[in-house]
Amino acid sequence: MSPDLDDPMEFWGSFNPTVGRCPDGHWRLLARVTAEGNVSRLRLADIVLDGTRLVGVRRRGVALAPDEAWERNGGRGGVEDPRATWVDQLGLFVLTYTAQGHNGGRAALAISEDFQHWRRLGPVHFAYLPALAHDINMFPNKDVVMFPEPVAGPDGQAAFAFLHRPMWDPALGLPAGVEDPRHGIWVSFVPVRKVAEDISNLVYFGGHRPVALPRYPYENFKIGAGPPPIRVPEGWLLIHHGVSQHVTEAPLPRLDYAAGAMILDAEDVSRVLYRTAEPLLAPETQLEQAGIDRHIVFPTALAEIGGRCYLFYGVADRHVGVAELRAEARPDSPWEAVAS
Q1: In a 3-state reduction of DSSP, which class is residue 288?
Q2: Contacting residues for 256 by C-beta, under 8 A, at least 6 apart
Q3: What's the angle, vertex CA 42, arms to CA 299 and CA 63, rounded to 5?
Q4: 181 and 165 in contact (C-beta within 8 Å)?
Q5: Do 167 and 151 form a contact (C-beta atoms < 8 A)?
Q6: pLDDT band, residue 170 (cuts 50/70/90)
Q7: Residue 99's pLDDT is what?
Q8: In angstroms, how far is the first alpha carbon of the chain from the final one?
Q9: Which helix (H) or strand (E) holds 207?
Q10: Segment 293-321 mean pLDDT
């Protein structure tokens, strides 16, 4: 999917999609479309298939626009970078997205029964934890994704878990125990019993703890979650993005966004068992390297369609790309066992 230059709503780009299979059996995506002036909306589109091969999209209407005050920043802002998770226990799609308001990017949630009509639950609220000696709500937060089924929370009770990426500001001081200011992946929890009482409680996150920080050269600047995690025999597979910094002749260093992966422990999702020391997908094509200061492959959705596992990703903050993800035995496996 590429931007329709005749449509002012997506003149700056159509990228960073999430995907879902609707009750009518059709696969659809929600793409971030950005108008001139940097105003983003979420546009619905049908995925067009030729057998099991993805060949394009048919555009539909806007599913979410920056209609709430906390999604707007003057004439800019918007709703960005959606990730949708189907949660069997709730019978709902849960959409996590970034609301670009006056205080920068803030995580927000919406829910839907059909992937097409969404009801906002509102912005996420992070509980104050005395052990951190800081209020996480003071910092912008992006790349929020939800696990599709309950896991063990910090108290051992069933909880819905969310990965997220706090964007620390050293000028405000770092939370207690945080020594590396680079942006990394954290996890927070919402007790299942609280959500059973009221679905609106899904936005009240607690039990925050770190999961992963930058580790390898392709992610030496920062990392963040990609698509929602999926259950595999080894634990939870998380495709993530890693950002590396490169000095060039340009005034500012170039940032390269690539896709890597890690396996999280099924019993403790804050524990990383394996990580890829090299990227699974890197910006190599002309379109992916189109930016002067950024070369971007930004993974946001993972779906099994017709027996094939497709990774959807943003291309240079401009297009939607897709790659096929395969499990193969390789002598040069990029996986490394780690202890987090």
Answers
A1: coil
A2: 218, 243, 244, 246, 282, 283, 294, 295, 296
A3: 135
A4: no
A5: no
A6: confident
A7: 96
A8: 38
A9: strand 204-212
A10: 95
Q: Tokens 């009482």: give the residue.
A: 197
SS3 217: helix
Q: Quick one: 184 exposed, middle or buried, by C-beta within 10 A (0-12, 13-18, 19+)?
A: buried
3-class secondary-structure state, position 104: strand
Among 128, 106, 108, 103, smallest CA distance to 118 is for: 108
For residue 141 the two structure tokens come to 């937060």
Yes or no: say if 106 and 117 are a contact pair by the CB < 8 Å rule: no
**CA–CA dist 292, 66 (Å, integer):** 29
Pairing of strands 319-324, 308-315: antiparallel
The per-residue pLDDT for range 218-265, each reduced to its tens digit, is 999 999 999 999 999 999 999 999 999 998 877 888 999 999 999 999
Task: Check residue 145 and give its pLDDT.
Answer: 98
Amino acid at 178: V
Segment 12-69, tens digit of pLDDT? 999 999 999 999 999 999 999 999 888 999 999 999 999 888 999 999 999 999 999 9
What tokens were used for 268?
């403790």
Distance of alpha carbon 61 from alpha carbon 170, whole angstroms = 41
Q: Return the CA Rg of the chain.
A: 19
H/E stretch holding 276 reads: strand 272-276
* Spatial distance between the Cα atoms of 231 and 217, rounded to a whole number of angstroms: 27
- Report the predicted TM-score, pTM, of the whole model to 2 decimal places: 0.96
- Position with higher pLDDT, 312 vs 331: 312
Residue 190, pLDDT > 70, answer yes
CA distance 218 to 298: 13
CA distances from 262 to 51, 234, 299 (A): 31, 11, 14
319 token code pair: 């297009």
Strands 254-264 and 294-305, how do they pair?
Answer: parallel
Q: What is the pLDDT of residues 98-144, one digit of tens each?
A: 999 887 899 999 999 999 999 999 999 999 999 999 999 999 999 99
- Write out the DSSP string of 29-85: EEEEEEETTTEEEEEEEEEEEETTEEEEEEEEEEEE-S-SGGGEETTEEEEEEEEEE
